[in-house]
C-alpha cells in the first residue's frame, strides 16, 4: 500500500481569547480534516489556552495573482485619508504647560500671592 497522496497538508490557525484575532500557527499532515483538527487540538491544549482553532486544507486556500495584487495599488492620491497619528500632541502639550509655569514666570508673581 502506497502512502503517496494519503496525507494532506493543513494550515492551523488559533484564537487565544474571544476578542483576539485569528493567528497562523503551523502546518501539519493528516489523512483527513477530522484527524487534522484532533492533532491541532492535542498540540494546543498541552501548551496554551485557546478559545478557537481553525484547520484549513492547504489546497482550499488561494492567494492573489500578480494581476489581482496590482489592483490593490491606489490609482489616485488620497494620502490625506491615511492618519499619521496624534502622538506629537502629548509632547507639544507638555512643552506648552512647562512654558506656562516656568521659574521666571512664577518669580514674576512676587507679592501677588497671599500666604
Report on the structure:
- This protein is α+β, with helices and mostly antiparallel strands.
- The chain has a domain of 55 residues: Ubiquitin-like (UB roll), CATH 3.10.20.
- It is 33% helix and 19% strand.
- Strands 2-1-3 form a three-stranded antiparallel sheet, with helices on one face.
- Strand 1 and strand 2 form a beta hairpin.
- It is elongated.
- The model has no long low-confidence stretch (mean pLDDT 82).
Features:
115 residues, alpha+beta, Ubiquitin-like (UB roll), 3-stranded antiparallel sheet, 3 strands, 33% helix, elongated
Q: What is the topological layout?
A:
Elements: E1 8-15, E2 23-30, H1 33-45, E3 52-57, H2 66-70, H3 88-100, H4 103-109
Antiparallel strand pairs: 1-2, 1-3
Strand content: 15-25%
The counted number of beta strands is 3
* Rg estimate, integer Å: 29 Å
| String of helices and strands | EEHEHHH
Task: Give the CA-CA distance, first to last residue.
Answer: 98 Å
* CATH classification, class level of the domain at 7-61: Alpha Beta
- Low-confidence sequence ranges: none
* Biggest sheet layout: 3 strands, antiparallel
CATH fold-level name of the domain at 7-61: Ubiquitin-like (UB roll)
CATH architecture of the domain at 7-61: Roll
CATH superfamily of the domain at 7-61: Phenylacetic acid degradation B
Kindly report the spatial arrangement of strands forming the biggest sheet. 2-1-3
